[in-house]
Amino acid sequence: MFKRISLIFTLLLLVACTNSKPALQKVDQARNITEDKPTLVETEQDDELEEFIEFVLEDEVIRVNLTAVPILQQYLMGSKDRNKEIERMSIYPLFQENKDSVDSEDETFSEPVYLLEFSCYQSACSYLLLNQNQKNHAFLIADLATWENVQLSPKGSKVLLTFSREVKTQITNNIVVVDLMNWERLPLQNETNDLSLTPYKWVIPTVEWINDEQISVTIKDGPPNKTDESTTTSSEPFIHVTISFDKKE
Q: In this predicted model, what pLDDT tens digit does every residue of 2-27 receive, in sequence order?
C-alpha cells in the first residue's frame, strides 16, 4: 500500500499530457476482436513504435495512446506486471457527441469524454479524464477514490463528478467540476457560508446543478472526525450550500 501511494504521489508531480498526439483513437470494429479485456497493442508509425491500451466497449473500440498520456505510461513502467495492471483498468464514456439531455441553443462542448480507472487497491482507484481533441488530452482528477456519479451542466459547458473515499470507517465525498470548453478543473467557492469543501472531509448526500455557473450541495452536519476543529453547530442534520466556480486568472 505504501509503495502504491508513493508511486501515485510521484505521478501527481508529472504533467498529465503534453504530447501533441491524440490520446484517444477509435478503432474500426469491422476487424476481428476476440479479447474483451483491455490489452496492450503496439503499432509502428513513421519508424516509431507506439503503444496503446485497447478497450472494447459495448458499441465501440477505442485506444489510449500511452505516449500522449505520460502519467499512465510512467505508472505502467513502474508496475511489476504491466499486462495484469492493464487488464484491471476500465474506461467509461461519460457522454457522447449527441447530448439529448442538454437543452440549450448556446455553443456546447460536443466531443466525447471518457473516464479511465486505473491503479486500483481494493475499491479505491485513480481516475484520468480523457478527451480526443483538446491540447491537454488527459489529466488526473482523483486518486485513492471511488467514482460515484457524473452530471453534465444544463448548457453542456461543464461536467460535475462525485467521488467517495473511506476515512476512519466513514464514507466521505469530493466534488470535481471541469470546464469542458477550456478543459480545466475549476476551484469551488462556497457562496452560502465559510464552510470549506476540503476533499473527502464531508459526507455529501446530494449534488445538483442550479445553472451552468452554480451547483447546490447538501452536506451532512458535522465532519466524520468529531475532533475536527471545523465542526458546525447547526441544529439541522444537513447543511445546504450554493457553490460557484472561482475561475483561474
A: 445 444 444 443 444 445 678 888 88
Residue with cell 464514507: 171
The SS3 call for residue 53 is strand
Task: Please give the single-letter amino acid code of residue 96.
Answer: Q
CA distance linking residue 106 with residue 50, whole number of Å: 39
Nearest-angstrom CA–CA distance, 238 and 206:
10
pTM, two decimal places: 0.83
Residue 53 and residue 89 in contact, taking contact as beta carbons nearer than 8 Å: yes
Can you tell me whether residue 9 is helix, strand or coil? helix
**Residue 3, SS3?**
helix
> Residue 198 and residue 10: Cα distance in Å, rounded?
22
pLDDT digit string, tens, across residues 149-186: 999 999 999 999 999 999 888 999 999 999 998 899 99
Contact yes or no for 83/100 (Cβ under 8 A)? no
Q: How far apart are the first and last CA of the chain?
A: 37
State the DSSP code for 5.
H
Rounded CA-CA distance 175/197 in Å is 8
Give every CB contact of residue 44 below 8 A, 6+ residues apart in sequence.
Answer: 50
Q: Show Cβ contacts of residue 233 under 8 Å, excluding neighbours closer than 6 positions.
A: none
Name the region of 103 (left: φ>0; alpha: ψ -120 to 50; beta: rest): beta
d(CA 18, CA 37): 28
